[in-house]
Amino acid sequence: MNIILLGPPGAGKGTQARILMERRGLVQLSTGDMLRAAVTAGTDVGRKAEAVMKAGGLVSDDIVIGVVGDRLDAPDVKAGVIFDGFPRTTPQAEALDGLLAEKGMTLDAVVNMVVDDAAMVGRISGRYTCANCGEGYHDVDKAPAVAGVCDKCGSTEFKRRKDDNAETVAARLKEYHAETAPLIAYYKATGKLRDVDGMAEIGEVTRQVEAALG
Ligand code: ADP
Ligand code: ADP
Ligand code: ZN
User: Fold this and answer.
1) pLDDT digit string, tens, across residues 63-100
2) Burial (Cβ within 10 Å: 0-12, 13-18, ≥19) of residue 44
3) DSSP sequence for the chain
4) Is 23 a catalytic residue?
């Protein structure tokens, strides 16, 4: 099964992707994570993407499509892919159609996480992750069971993204509405779009996602 999680920054795509990965054995393909890894590694892609990401803009379609195309050549994607944060523009969606056809893969569902913009500022400002295993947390909405200790791996090291601040959130939401929201109509036309209430608590969102996937 191959699915897309669609929604603005802070909608809960990464959170639900990790849960689906565990439950269904799917592979999470997060273009944000891949681009951040490229920046850290100082690759060509990373050097081109860094400033745009810091400002909350969108990295160019060519770069992102290239990264995804390469990733889909790895054998593990046969288990099924959760696209998290991709596609984000109409050219990216069209390129994905081509890539999937080329690799003999089909798209089963597009889960549209419906949220209030205003709440995304708080979601993103409070977001942090385990530095060891990547589990996502939130200052208010999802604290570890034992303060300062990762639920999943016991690590006491956490990190926050440089672009998770109030200034870039505004830019990122603007990009979402201008470039990404048109994909709702794009996928509605394919009959594969399923809305879920991204404002519900995390477990309830998971129940709705599971129901949408069947
Ligand atoms: P995205 O990948 O869409 O940007 P994340 O999954 O990283 O979003 O979630 C953003 C922040 O909001 C994280 O700190 C996460 O713990 C928290 N979060 C995710 N889903 C919910 C939810 N349904 N209710 C409240 N907080 C949530
Ligand atoms: P969020 O969790 O807030 O949705 P991501 O981790 O998906 O953010 O993306 C972080 C940044 O990486 C984006 O603001 C953008 O600069 C870049 N990026 C990630 N995916 C894409 C994409 N598909 N197209 C263009 N830029 C992207
Ligand atoms: Zn951890």
Assistant:
1) 999 999 999 999 999 999 999 999 999 999 999 999 99
2) exposed
3) --EEEE--TTSSHHHHHHHHHHHH-PEEEEHHHHHHHHHHHT-HHHHHHHHHHHHT-PPPHHHHHHHHHHHTTSGGGGG-EEEES---SHHHHHHHHHHHHHTT----EEEEEE--HHHHHHHHHTEEEETTT--EEETTTB--SBTTB-TTT----EE--TT-SHHHHHHHHHHIIIIITHHHHHHHTTT-EEEEETTS-HHHHHHHHHHHH-
4) no
* Average pLDDT of the residues of the chain: 97
Q: Pick the atom of ligand 2 nearest to 168's CA.
A: 14
Angle between helices 13-24 and 202-213 (to 10 degrees): 60
d(CA 77, CA 107): 13
Q: How far is the CA of 74 from the centre of ligand 1 (A)?
A: 28
3-state secondary structure 35-72: HHHHHHHCCHHHHHHHHHHHHCCCCCHHHHHHHHHHHC
Calpha distance 129→47 (Å, rounded):
24
- At residue 167 the predicted structure's pLDDT band, cuts being 50, 70 and 90, is confident
**pTM of the predicted model over 0.90:** yes
Ligand 2 contacts CB of residue 46 (under 6 A): no
Strands 109-114 and 158-159: unpaired
